[in-house]
Amino acid sequence: EGTTETYEPIEIAELASDEDLIWNISLQARIDAALSNGEIYLIYQPKILVATGEMVGVEALVRWRDPIKGLIPPDHFIRQCENAGRMSQLTRHVLRDACQAGIAFEEEGLPLSVAVNVSATLVHERDIVNMVREVLQDTGFDPHRLTLEITETYRISNYERAAEILNDLAALGPKISMDDFGVGAASLEALQRLPFTELKIDRAFTSAIKDNPKSAAIVRNVLNLGKDLRVIVVAEGVEDEATLTILRDSGCLVAQGFAISRPIPFKEILVFQSVDKKQSLTNMV
Ligand code: C2E
Ligand code: MG
Ligand code: MG
Ligand code: MG
Prior knowledge:
Layout: H1 9-36, E1 40-49, E2 55-66, E3 70-72, H2 74-83, H3 87-107, E4 113-119, H4 127-139, E5 146-151, H5 159-171, E6 175-181, H6 187-193, E7 198-201, H7 203-206, H8 213-229, E8 232-235, H9 241-249, E9 254-255, H10 266-270, H11 275-284
Parallel strand pairs: 2-4, 4-5, 5-6, 6-7, 7-8, 8-9
Antiparallel strand pairs: 1-2, 1-9, 2-3
Helix pairs in contact: 3-4, 4-5
The protein binds ligand C2E and magnesium ion (3 copies).
One magnesium ion binds next to strand 5.
Protein name: EAL domain-containing protein
Organism: Alteraurantiacibacter aquimixticola
């Protein structure tokens, strides 16, 4: 502070944008390198049928392990990717890896569905439709086993356009899921206007149902809403057995969370055993 008086405002603006440009170019280069050298990779979190504990799918979650900075959480670098104009590249990379993993799971006898996160900002452009079509063709992954989780739906600025693009994506085969349902403005409007086939109740609600009657009421009623709208409701952020039991009693079909499994590497998915199976195995020995 206090050093700006000597500059005219216009010069400050120009200086700032030059610096931004240089910063963006180096960030772009770093992201491009990270994408091609394996620093950016996926881990997978199981989704189970609440009634039986059977794993029916996984959500692919991106990780960046920088040799110097260590593990960078997606909440940080997704925004950076966006600022650097690399969201599309990241998403293509993630889609391809996830579809290839889906095929590999199947070859190991696990016909899982695979969910990929897609930022809402991408569903304003037709590019995403071509990207998903190309990746499905190139990898040969069964389109009906792919789920596209649309994140940050509150950032959708043009519902007509987004609805068209989501319809075109759905026509390729994937399920279209609304991620983090309930948080961020306009969740219900997005649900009304966009062709979602799945809702993921945000963990802000799920994690509180044991202790907060309001959260329990919201979750119960989102489950009913799902039934009425004929969309699958997935509860995310299930952190303990008690919550899983409440969800089971409320008729929730699919759940995901640390109580079931943390996100884990590909190889651990192959040997993953659900909570129920683990318990019945322990009972047997
Ligand atoms: P999300 O899609 O809602 O993913 C779930 C996040 O919650 C994951 O964090 C997961 O590790 C965490 N989580 C799962 N179960 C529990 C639980 O029981 N308790 C708690 N406290 N947390 C749980 P992660 O991997 O850090 O991802 C954060 C967000 O980053 C994701 O939220 C998603 O919005 C975004 N993201 C992750 N991967 C991608 C990607 O490939 N592309 C895009 N566009 N966004 C991504
Ligand atoms: Mg998600
Ligand atoms: Mg989510
Ligand atoms: Mg979330």
